[in-house]
Amino acid sequence: MQASSFQTITTPITGLYKEKGSKFIAYAYPVSSDDEIKNHLDLLRKEHPKARHYCYAYRMTPDGSLYRSNDDGEPSGTAGKPILGQLLSFDVTNTLVVVVRYFGGTKLGASGLIHAYKAAAQDALSQADIVTCIVMTPFHIRFPFALSGEIMQALARIHAASITESYTDHGQISFELPLSEATLRLHQLKSQLAGFDGTESDMDLKLAEKSIGIS
After folding, report:
1. 90 pairs with which residues across the strands?
2. Rounded CA separation 139/186 (Å)
3. Helix axis angle, 148-157 relative to 182-193, nearest 10°?
4. Which CATH number fits the domain that encloses residue 164?
5. Residue that finishes a domain, picked among 87, 109, 128
6. How far out from the chain centre does Cα 178 lie?
7. What is the pLDDT at residue 199?
8. Do 21 and 123 share a domain, yes or no?
9. Which whole-number Å values give the CA distances from 115 to 20, 53, 74, 176, in the listed order?
10. Fewer Cβ atoms within 10 Å of its own Cβ: the N or the C terminal residue of the chain?
11. Which residues of the chain have pLDDT under 50?
12. DSSP H or E run through 182
């Protein structure tokens, strides 16, 4: 079952952990695409050219089912996994956390690394502004031009969001409804329009191909 809401962070935030001369700087970012993740990693490598490691984890999609962690040369499971663990602990998705490590000359051992990467990620996320976003489902409606006023009024009554209009020989409107209430609100919309001449034979209401989140 698709998630009807999710939590994410609103703005980039940093965290810090120090241990035996090593410095672990955590950067948390709200993200929505692979390109954004790559850009953040590339910029951090340029900003910290003398760092030893750039370990990271991210979760994507409303249910957090798309995720990845990367140890970037640290012993397997000592960096990316504890960072991902903090994303799970704070229950955030569409979020990337990168921990940049400057080596201080003393090895920390596996347990020390796990604690350090966890602590740095935790420090960043504990300072983040976390918000709940509603998953919105996009729809398109095509209708006779003469019904544009009635259509807009009906959409207002069901509290449709992000309405965009275009008109040629027919009117076309794109709008969004909360996923959890889409079926009910569409039923209300169709009931309101049922009495207008031509709507049954000349109106097309269809689900768009993707869902998005808005705060």
Report:
1. none
2. 10
3. 140
4. 3.30.70.240
5. 128
6. 16
7. 40
8. yes
9. 13, 16, 13, 43
10. N
11. 197-202, 209-215
12. helix 182-193
The answer for 200, left when phi > 0, alpha when psi is -120 to 50, beta otherwise, is alpha
At residue 201, the pLDDT reads: 41
What is the C-alpha separation between 57 and 87, in angstroms, rounded? 8
Q: Are residues 124 and 173 in the same domain?
A: no
Q: What is the pLDDT of residue 188?
A: 87
Neighbours of 194 (CB within 10 A): 9
**Which amino acid, 131?**
V
pLDDT at 208: 52
Range of the domain at 47: 5-128
Same domain, 188 and 139: yes
Predicted pLDDT of residue 162: 78
123 and 137 co-located in one domain: no
pLDDT at 3: 77
- Confidence (pLDDT) at 207: 52
Q: How far is CA 146 from CA 111, 153, 166, 188, 202, in A?
A: 70, 13, 13, 21, 11
Hey, what are 150's tokens? 């009635």
d(CA 53, CA 71): 8
On whether both 57 and 102 belong to a single domain, the answer is yes
Please state the domain count of the chain: 2
